[in-house]
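hey
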């Protein structure tokens, strides 16, 4: 093999698995726009990037409200339409029964539930799933800033 051949690495296909170094496991990288398995991929990518930036700057140890405000500032500064404590109508059997205030509502499509705890558990995931069902929204991100590394859980409501 000549020198030129040894320096050229094969290009993996776009749908090949990618390494997630933080989780130390291989996850398939979804194609952008794959709306069935990863709705609103473009928006969630921006939110997650902003969450990592906020955690890099602040680290763990603050109350949820601090992270909520910082994430709102980061997203708004990047030109992403974001509302804090956004009021979302809740229905029961087709009838309005109250309102839910989302920590952040991004581009009127993604609910962000902010936590500042040691670790997420299934109760937090269930909470966000209930919010999605009650509001009729399809996607939520559970973002925990209280751990050594920001934790992100993507919750998709099945129809």
């Amino acid at each position: 093999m000549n020198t030129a051949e040894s320096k050229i690495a094969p290009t993996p296909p776009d749908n090949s698995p990618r390494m997630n170094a933080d989780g130390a496991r291989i996850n398939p990288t979804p194609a952008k726009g794959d709306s069935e398995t990863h709705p609103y991929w473009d928006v969630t990518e921006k939110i997650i990037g902003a969450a990592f930036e906020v955690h890099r700057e602040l680290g763990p140890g603050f109350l949820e409200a601090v992270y909520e405000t910082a994430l709102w500032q980061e997203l708004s500064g990047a030109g992403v339409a974001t509302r804090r404590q956004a009021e979302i109508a809740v229905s029961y059997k087709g009838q309005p029964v109250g309102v839910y205030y989302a920590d952040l509502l991004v581009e009127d499509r993604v609910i962000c539930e902010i936590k500042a705890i040691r670790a997420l558990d299934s109760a937090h995931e269930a909470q966000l799933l209930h919010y999605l069902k009650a509001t009729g929204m399809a996607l939520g991100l559970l973002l925990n800033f209280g751990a050594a590394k920001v934790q992100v859980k993507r919750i998709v409501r099945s129809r």
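The chain has a mean pLDDT of 83. The CA atoms of residues 93 and 132 lie 15 Å apart.
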